[in-house]
Amino acid sequence: MRVLLDTNIIIYRENKKMTNYSIGHLFRWLDKLKYDKLIHPLTKKEIAEYQYADPAESMTLKLDAYQELKTQAPMAEHVTTFAKAADKNENDRVDMALLNEVYQGRVDLLITEDKRLRKKAETLGLGHKVFSINAFLSVVTNENPSLIEYKALAVRKILIGEINVRDSFFDSLRSAYAGFDTWFNSKCDEDAYICQDDTGQLLGFLYLKTESADENYSDITPIFRPQRRLKIGTFKVVATGFRLGERFIKIILDNAIERNVDEVYVTLFEDRAELETLATLLLRWGFEKYGMKNSTGETVLTKQMKHYLTELTPRQNFPNIVYNKQKFILPILPQYHTSLLPDSILRNENESDFLAKTPYRYALQKVYISFSPERNIKPGDIVVFYRNGVAGNAGHTAVLTSIAIVEEAIYGFTSKEDYMSHVQNRSVFTDVELEQFWRQHRGNQIVLKFIFVKSFAKRPILKFLWDNDIIAFPSGPRPFTRISDDQFNMILNEAQTDLSHYWR
Known about the structure:
The chain is α/β, with parallel strands linked by helices. The chain has 19 helices and 19 strands.
C-alpha cells in the first residue's frame, strides 16, 4: 500500500515546535502495516521554504526518511477541469497535484490535516481515499484489531491530584497557558475524567466546572447574560482512531443534564491543529461560535441546553429531544447488543468481554442496519432497543435496554462505495459482513444513524410487552415496530427511567 503524506503531516512529524500528538499513532500504524510512506516533490519544495521549521535546513535533511515520488502523474482531464475552477493560488495547485496522484492510481491513499483539501477530494469522488489522521486511524484499527497495541481504553473519573502534571501529555497545554502547572495543582482535590491505555499512557483529559448565574463574565465579549453554566475547563483528546472525543462529548452532556445547567461553554485557541480538531468536534455536536475571551484572544463556543432549535439537526440539538415524534422498537441480536451499546450491558454479561478495541463502541453516533421495508423514518424519531432473548424462554430473557434518537435514515444506495462510506467503523459488522450484505441486498438496506441517549434503569421483559398488548403474543418485535405515545410512556414507567430533562 502506497500512502502519500501531505506537507502538514511531515511538518507535524519532524518539527519540534509543532504539537500534534496523534502523529505518533499514525506513523506506528504505517510501520505496522508496512505501508510505503511517500512524499511529493512539491511537498519537498514547500518544506524547504517553510519559514517556521527548526531550522528549514534540518527539516529538509529529515526528508531522507521518506520515499519521494520518482515521477509525477500527468494531470487527468477531470482533475484539470476541476482545478481551473478551484485553483486560486500556489497552495491550491499543490493540492491538485497531490489529488491527481490519487486519481491516477499512482498512490493508494493520501493523508492530510487540510480540511479544504479533503473537501476537494470529496468533490472529485476521492473521499474514500483521502483521510485525516483520525479517520485513517479509525479505519485501520477497525480492520486490524489484532494489531492494536492496547487491550482497552478506559474513561474514568479521578482526583486531579492523582495525575502527574509533568506527563508529556500536558506539554501542549503547558506551552499554551502560562501558569498551567500552578492551576493544575490548585485543583488537586477536584475531579477530572481521564482516558488511559493499559500501559497507563494518558490519551484524554477533561475537567468540568459548574458556574452560577452570578459568575463574573466581564472578560468575555459579548458578555454572557446571567445563567447557570457548565464550563469545559480543560479538554484534550489524542486521536487514536477510537472516537474518544465522542465519548468525552457524551460525558460533558451527561454532566450538563445532571447539573441542570442552561448552557455549556468552552474557550480555546484556534491557531493550532490540535485545538482546531477539538473545535470541529464541538461544532459538530451543536456548539456555536459566540465571541471572544478578551484577555487571551481565545474563541468562545457555547451550547444551549434547554432549547430545541429547529434549524439544527438532531445531532446538533442533542441531548435536547422533541417528544412529539414517531417511536419504534428495534430488536438486536445478543451477540451484537453490548458491542454496539456498551452502556447497556446486562448484569449476566462479563464486562471484560466488551473492553473496547473497536471505534464504534466509543462513538456517540452509531449505525443500525436493517433489511426492513419500512422507509418512513425521520430525523429526531425515537427508538427503543430490544435485546433478543433465549429461544424457548424469550418471554423472560428478551429485554428492552435503552433509548436512542434517529439522526438519519439512509436507503436507496447506488454503489457499494456510497454504502460503505456510511457504515464502516460505526457498525458492529466487519467489512467482510458488510460487503456480504451489499451483495445480497444492495440498495434495499436501510442504514439508521442513531445517537445513544440513555440506558434503562430497569429492563422491561418481553412478557411485559405481551401483558400490556404492546406486542402480540407469542411474537417478539420486528425491526421498526411502531408504538404509540401511551405505549412508550408505559415502557418508560416500567423501566423506571426519567427522560424529563431531555424533552423540549
